[in-house]
Amino acid sequence: MLSFIHAGDVHLGNPFKGLSRQLPEKFQKEIQEASFIAFQGLIDLAVTEKVDFVLFPGDLLNGSGVSARVQATLMSGFRQLKEAGITAIVSFGNHDYQAFDSQPRFWPENVLVFDHAVQEKVLTSRSGERVAFTGFSYADRSERRQRLADFPSRNPNVDYEIGLYHGSVGKLGDDYAAFSVDEMLAKNYDYWALGHIHQRATLHEQPTIAYSGNLQGLNRTEVGAKGVLLVQSGSHGLVERFIDLAPVRFEALTLTNVADPLAVVDALLQSNYSLPTFLTLTIDGPLQPALRQAYDEGHLLEVIQQSLPKSSNVWPIELTVQEQKTVVDALSATHDFSTAIEAVIQEGVGAKKLSDDVPLVVREYLNQPEGQVALRKSLEQLFSERRSSDED
């Protein structure tokens, strides 16, 4: 039986910046260790499950990975895999493409790294199946070349053909090795291990074309369970199963009808977060007087943070108050603002108008569903505030 782990976007060593100026020591330690603990959990899972291979389709590292701790963690993990007879297969993506020239020469021989050109590597599983792996590493951050055309059709001399591909659905010339699902299906591979998108998603079933999502959420937009896909062969082909490995969670919570900061705290404690959780908190509806005063004075979030017991597993990192809904609905009834907003979102105007100096992670955020939701809310609030100002 063939088995492997599909682990996209590990981002080992991610710095987790900008979470909170008031972050308690407990949460500081948890988040600083998160990517390393998650990576070790991946290695332990591979050894326990006795998989044949571990696939890293891009962004294994968060940058060039030159820090001593990142290098030591990789070496330790890869050696554990070697001792267990497991081969690691690595391609570099848009965040770690620079590591192509520095990292592989330090890694043990059970680690296979794809070149900038598309390559096929044929290996043998524990049970004797011949498995072809095909992939490539980014040569630069954008990778606008047509890469999928260079992938060969399924090798007729192997039992399985698996593609590793770091990219996103799009048209030729777009950033991040744009591809189409139909193009992938035309290659007749048995499984496509995708990287780049941090949200777990299956683009096609039988054969599977899937993003595993990232190993550990990196910011407040990357909510929910994070981990890897454990893939095993069966009577119906290769079947994947999600395994949660992230030691820290990012979540979002909306509260309504809360009277004061202590009521907010009680609601958070009743949510029973079992893992250390960084929370994006939304209070919906008109604010009661006690909340209104703290919000207007600009310290409502801090009051909530400092009112939580030290034993709490939840820490709110952002607070949003939604009181504009009625105004926006009224505006939409008499103005075509909603159509204009949707045009901005769907055409990607927000990301396209950014200065070249804006970090790539911001551009990626605005092109993802979470970023588009945030942009839509901001535009709605802007229209609402402008109309209120004009009426005054």
From TrEMBL:
GO terms for molecular function: exonuclease activity. InterPro entries: Calcineurin-like_PHP, DNA_Repair-Maintenance_Comp, Metallo-depent_PP-like, Mre11_N, Pesterase_YhaO. Keywords: Exonuclease, Hydrolase, Nuclease. Residues 3-199 form the Calcineurin-like phosphoesterase domain. SUPFAM superfamilies: Metallo-dependent phosphatases (SSF56300). It holds the Pfam family Metallophos. This is DNA repair exonuclease SbcCD nuclease subunit (SbcD). It comes from Fructobacillus fructosus.
